[in-house]
Amino acid sequence: xxxxxxxxxxxxxxxxxxxxxxxxxxxxxxxxxxxxxxxxxxxxxxxxxxxxxxxxxxxxxxxxxxxxxxxxxxxxxxxxxxxxxxxxxxxxxxxxxxxxxxxxxxxxxxxxxxxxxxxxxxxxxxxxxxxxxxx
Length: 135
Fold this sequence. Notes:
The structure is a single chain. By secondary structure, the chain is an alpha/beta fold. It has a single domain (3-133), classed as 3-Layer(aba) Sandwich (Rossmann fold). It contains five helices and six strands; from the N terminus they run E-H-E-H-E-H-E-H-E-H-E. The protein has helices at residues 11-20, 32-40, 60-70, 89-98, 112-123; strands spanning 3-7, 25-29, 48-52, 76-80, 103-107, 132-133. Helix 5 links the parallel strand 5 (103-107) and strand 6 (132-133). Helix 2 (32-40) runs parallel beside helix 3 (60-70) and helix 3 packs parallel to helix 4 (89-98). The radius of gyration is 13 Å and the shape is globular. Residues 128-135 have low confidence and may be disordered.
């Protein structure tokens, strides 16, 4: 069973993600600090990061960059209610630093099957680049 670190600050969406990803083991965080603590305290490897881009005090991309400094090939799914061209300059620059290898971008709202396919593609190592997917 794969372990996913899910970073989402909206509790209703976290509940939905929990249901959508029930076939995986989830570590749930509602803030960047909590995600980093879960990562540091992990007793099991993390196979994928699913992170909201826009957070109150940080961004999911910044968390991805920090985690990838420890696990260079960590697959990352970034979620956002905004298209990539509407992201802040900092988030856009951080996305460039993160690169496109094993990175997918899902624009909210997205369908469960799109999330499931994206997770599967990244976990199996299928060629994946920074892709904006929608419902």
